[in-house]
Write a structure and sequence with these properties.
By secondary structure, the protein is mostly beta strands. The chain is 0% helix and 52% strand. The chain contains no helices and 11 strands.
């Protein structure tokens, strides 16, 4: 499956953004969808993941209660709604897809979008 992330931008602390991840090439509902992020000088880290049906979701503790992952399989698109953004959320955000079940590990994902930059200013 091919992925293309979009929706990044610059916002002030406390603001909101919605990232999108458009999928093509395979049956999207057969893939778990994850969001990861990488801040300058840091390793890529898990943010959120949802199962193929969207019925199971998990979040990193750092974003729990502020971010919401969702998907619309009819539109072959996944989303990451980000609210109450903090400067420490600044990073390049990547969507990734994995056949079968969810995983929190970036190494388990074979398909990646190109990344979209989110900058949160204080």
């Amino acid at each position: 499956v091919q992925l293309q992330a979009s929706g990044g931008g610059s916002v002030q602390a406390g603001g909101s953004l919605r990232l999108s991840c458009a999928a093509s090439g395979r049956t999207f509902s057969n893939y778990a969808l994850g969001w990861f992020r990488q801040a300058p000088g840091k390793e890529r880290e898990f943010v959120a993941v949802t199962s193929g049906s969207g019925g199971t979701t998990n979040y990193a503790d750092s974003v729990k209660g502020r971010f919401t992952i969702s998907r619309d399989n009819a539109k072959n698109t996944g989303y990451l709604e980000m609210n109450s953004l903090k400067p420490e959320d600044t990073a390049v955000y990547y969507c990734a897809a994995r056949r079968t079940w969810i995983s929190f590990s970036a190494g388990d994902y074979a398909s990646w979008g190109q990344g979209t930059l989110v900058t949160v200013s204080s």
